[in-house]
Design brief:
about 130 residues; mainly beta; seven-stranded mixed β-sheet; four-stranded antiparallel β-sheet; 11 strands; globular
């Protein structure tokens, strides 16, 4: 059974930074593309960023391009989301996501529904 555990959320002022982490267990993490989603109050969950199994390809929501960076450390079974220049509209619960794909595939997520979700971590940006 896969477990995805997010951490690193919190309260930050506009213009500040946070780094989210997602630690995976239960499967061979390095084999799978990963992603981050978020859900703000009263809104649907939306895709934020995705990364291929080896980190060679990434994708981003337009509104976070240039501010957020997704990365992964396969030996540590962890994917990260570095968030800079945060805005109040970035306030949401952030979820880690894992995708089951053929090992070594060049595929990377661009908004597709994942196979597994984490429990989420709250990010609040004050103005």
């Amino acid at each position: 059974q896969v477990q995805l555990v997010e951490s690193g959320g919190g309260l930050v002022q506009a213009g500040g930074s946070l780094r989210l982490s997602c630690a995976a267990s239960g499967r061979t993490f390095s084999m799978y593309p990963m992603g981050w989603f978020r859900q703000a109050p009263g809104k649907e969950r939306e895709f934020v960023a995705g990364i291929s199994w080896n980190g060679g390809s990434t994708s981003y929501l337009d509104s976070v391009k240039g501010r957020f960076t997704i990365s992964r450390d396969n030996p540590k079974n962890t994917v990260y989301l570095q968030m800079n220049s945060l805005k109040p509209e970035d306030t949401a619960v952030y979820y880690c996501a894992m995708y089951y794909r053929r090992y070594g595939s060049s595929w990377y997520p661009r908004g597709e529904d994942p196979t597994n979700w984490g429990q989420g971590t709250q990010v609040t940006v004050s103005s």
